[in-house]
Amino acid sequence: MKLTGSQIRQLRSMCNQLKPTISIGKAGVEAVIGTAEQELEAHELVKCTVQGTSGLDTREAADELARLTNATVVQVIGHKFSIYRETSRKDVEKIKLS
Q1: 3-class DSSP assignment, residue 87
Q2: Pairwise CA distance, residues 97 & 60, whole Å
Q3: Using CA atoms, how far apart are residues 15 and 37, in angstroms rounded to an integer?
Q4: Of 70, 98, 95, which Cα lies nearest the Cα of 18?
Q5: pLDDT digits (tens, 9 = 90+) for 73-89
Q6: Helices first, then strands: H and E counts in the chain
Q7: Which pTM was predicted?
């Protein structure tokens, strides 16, 4: 999904209040794909952290996880990044993008 500049700014402001729910460690990105899928379906916007033991650059991990989950990278700061994907669930309140 391609996001506009204003939509990315809106999502970035929402990311400030989130705590990381996914931690990428030694096992790499592949180990957290299932968790990421569940979190994206439940919340649409997910913040992740990359541990120093993973051996991955944060941008590389963000791009890889986004590619594997069909999500969009919203921001990368330090060892944390956020990804967004619209949920297909009907029982979840969707983020209204401007």
Answers
A1: coil
A2: 26
A3: 18
A4: 95
A5: 999 999 999 999 999 89
A6: 3, 4
A7: 0.93
Cβ(23)–Cβ(59) under 8 Å?
A: no
Residue-wise burial string across 13-51, b where 16 or more C-beta atoms lie within 10 A, e elsewhere: ebbeeeeeebebeeeebeebeeebeebbeebbbbbbbbe
**DSSP strand E in the chain: where?**
22-24, 45-50, 72-77, 80-84
Which residue do the tokens 């996914």 mark? 22
CB neighbours of residue 72 within 10 Å:
17
Give the tokens for residue 55.
């051996």
The encoded tokens of residue 88 equal 């297909």
Q: What is the pLDDT of residues 10-56, one digit of tens each?
A: 999 999 999 999 999 999 999 999 999 999 999 999 999 999 888 89
Percentage of the residues of the chain whose pLDDT score is greater than 70: 99
